[in-house]
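Quick one:
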Amino acid sequence: MQVPVCAMLLACGLSVLPTTWAGDVRESNPPLVEARDMKLPEAVRRAVDKGDYTAAQAAVLAALKDRKVEYRNTRDLNLAMLHEWMRVTGADVLGRYAAEEETKKEFLASFARDAGWLELYLGCGLVPAQKSAGMDVLYRIWMEEGGKVKNKPLAVALASCWGGW
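Output:
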């Protein structure tokens, strides 16, 4: 059963993460959402670079241990979003997906570091749970556009719709 992301965030005790909508998807001035590179803790960065999302999830939880995630604390909020993405999609699912091809591992690392894209994905509606279908849609768009997705709001909408429920 799929549960909307906002319901899962509330159930986890996290405040509702803000959804950034940077304009009309018909705008002709891409990118609509600038990449916001997350400064990940070293243990998280190493695990993401290796494609080990189980270790990355454990490192994120360790970094957030005994901390209250607040909106004004960008670092903790970004880590909470990263954790939510790994939790919903499945850290083991992401690890298997990253192991399929080197370019998939590079894509997932790029996605995991981009706070703006991650925020859009989590806020888009139904995130495909415990499967890589949504990530696969985004990966194919990422590959087609040479590693730079120009219209991230449209890409995450497609991933939500085509990723299956």
